[in-house]
From TrEMBL:
Its EC number is 3.4.25.1. It comes from the Archaea. It holds the Pfam family Proteasome. The keyword Oxidoreductase does not apply. This is Proteasome endopeptidase complex subunit (PsmA, prcA). Keywords: Hydrolase, Proteasome. Signal peptide: none annotated. Residues 7-29 form the Proteasome alpha-type subunits domain.
Length: 199
């Protein structure tokens, strides 16, 4: 990585070579996070996260999977306190949509809302980008959907995806082994991915 020379002091400043270091640092935080996987199936979606409890840790899990609405869940990789802020925002957004339109919110609409929120934190001095990527998965009137948001504010639709630590290797595994089948098969694939990640 090239020396930042002060261009990393704010997320609104581009370096001479066109980079925004604060966003790059946030993306690096995601890569250092625990693995999260999302798989689209014919009859639903599967999301999973890798758990790595410490030897003296009393609680068995750290929450990295969240429910947004009855039909939407989120898996997070990166800085989990940032994920909780975005999850609270998504829950409020989903409930507001339900009250306003008397129907459940689409998965893509939630993904776009969260991506817009992430992007806002790259546009102002005095704030930092969210150091988290989210897999937003659910079933709506369009079928089963999986989107990923990242700290830059982009969101992308996937059939199967891995984010966080070791995601490049797991993505290669998914590219070779993923076929859109049923949730039970998706559970087997995510289990294989998590086992592969531990090697």
């Amino acid at each position: 990585m090239m020396a930042s020379r002060g261009y990393d002091m704010t997320p609104t400043m581009y370096s001479p070579d066109g980079r925004i270091y604060q966003v790059e640092y946030a993306i690096e935080t995601v890569k250092r996070g625990t693995l999260a996987i999302g798989i689209q199936a014919k009859d639903g979606v599967v999301i999973a996260v890798e758990e790595k409890p410490r030897s003296l840790q009393v609680s068995e899990t750290t929450q990295k999977i969240f429910q947004i609405d009855e039909h939407i869940g989120v898996a997070a990789a990166g800085y989990i306190p940032d994920a909780r802020i975005q999850v609270d925002s998504a829950r409020f957004f989903a409930q507001s949509n339900k009250l306003t339109y008397d129907e459940p919110v689409d998965v893509e609409t939630v993904a776009k809302h969260l991506a817009d929120q992430s992007h806002q934190f790259t546009q102002y001095s005095g704030v930092r980008p969210f150091g988290v990527a989210l897999i937003i998965a659910g079933v709506d009137r369009k079928g089963s959907r999986i989107y990923v948001t990242d700290p830059s504010g982009t969101y992308v639709l996937y059939a199967a995806v891995a984010i966080g630590g070791n995601s490049d290797d797991i993505t290669s595994f998914l590219e070779k082994n993923y076929k859109k089948r049923y949730v039970s098969r998706g559970c087997n694939i995510t289990s294989n991915c998590c086992n592969k990640s531990e090697i």
